[in-house]
Amino acid sequence: MDKPTYILAIESSCDDTSASVMCNAKVLSNVVANQEVHSKYGGVVPELASRAHQQNIVPVVQQALAQAKITKNDLSAIAFTKGPGLMGSLLVGTSFAKSMALGLNIPLLDVNHMQAHILAHFIDEEGSKKPNFPFICLTISGGHTQIVKVSNYFDMEILGETIDDAVGEAFDKSAKILGLPYPGGPLIDKYAQLGNPKAYSFTKPKVGDLDFSFSGLKTGILYFIQKQQRINPNFIEENLNDICASIQHTIVEILMDKLKNAVKQTGIKEIAIAGGVSANSEIRKRLINAEKHFGWPTYIPKFEYTTDNAAMIGITGYLKYISNMHADINVTAKARLKVTE
């Protein structure tokens, strides 16, 4: 029998420090340390994020190894997030992974964070189905909104993307306008469940068939709220559920319209979603409906693999390891990195 491949994966692209141990394509541990420090600033502060990663990385890695019931000497390779992300945060993970791989004399695997969000679908989990190639992936997060055609594990093509802000930012900024704490996206989702999605209508941006734009929508929401508050200062408190439901409905409609265009243009009906915003309940509901209505086989990742986590870095590292795609020890972190790089 073949010896199992154990991969330690490290993710530090933004404000969560995460480490995971994979045995082949199975997750043995997936530890995430969140950083509470940013909530009072209403957004991630890069300098504070880097410092917190430095404090968290050793205990998080130790915990991941302990939960997986293996020692560092059992490891076959170390995978880490090369980019995209906050440079200071990426450097903490990169330096740690490099020195540990050197110390243990095992291969190093550099992982593109955006590819990892997509490849999280290939984690071996009981009861989870994996997409068939080629498939279309809607990658939606705080920093990215893209429609990606995935022809193979490392053969991807961007069909459309946002020309300004990402969808996660549109959710968070709308929440900020409503006076909700950071991160506000999940709160909009929560209040939207209790509201009427048709209560208020917001204009959808006019951009290309497969491209996205959210900056105009954010401005439209801001002006709408300011106007209503001049008429009734308690407008937000009195209508919070309806406002959130209407904002969420508009954003999800935009995403679904673009997906329909992508299916029409490519003829590919296998649809996956990835990234932090794919945790949104309305998106999940609409995709499940699309599977019934349009006959699209849809793939929705487990909640813990939607936000930034090291298991998705681990599965990508494993796929690179078995394809002999090892990184050079001189590899450097890159704050900007396309999903195709």
Protein described:
Residues 26-314 form the Gcp-like domain. Belongs to the KAE1 / TsaD family. Its main location: cytoplasm. This is tRNA N6-adenosine threonylcarbamoyltransferase. This protein folds into two domains: 6-121 and 305-322, ATPase, nucleotide binding domain (Nucleotidyltransferase, domain 5, 2-Layer Sandwich); 130-301, Nucleotidyltransferase, domain 5 (2-Layer Sandwich), CATH 3.30.420.40. It has 341 residues and is of the alpha/beta class. A five-stranded mixed sheet has the order 3-2-1-4-5, sandwiched between helices. Strands 8-7-6-9-10 form a five-stranded mixed sheet, with helices on both faces. The two termini are 35 Å apart. It has nine helices and ten strands.
Q: What is the third-level CATH name, the topology of the largest domain?
A: Nucleotidyltransferase, domain 5
CATH architecture of the largest domain: 2-Layer Sandwich
Biggest β-sheet description? 5 strands, mixed
Query: Roughly what percent helix?
Result: 40-55%
Oligomeric status of the shown chains? single chain
Tally the helices: 9
CATH level-four homologous superfamily name of the largest domain: ATPase, nucleotide binding domain
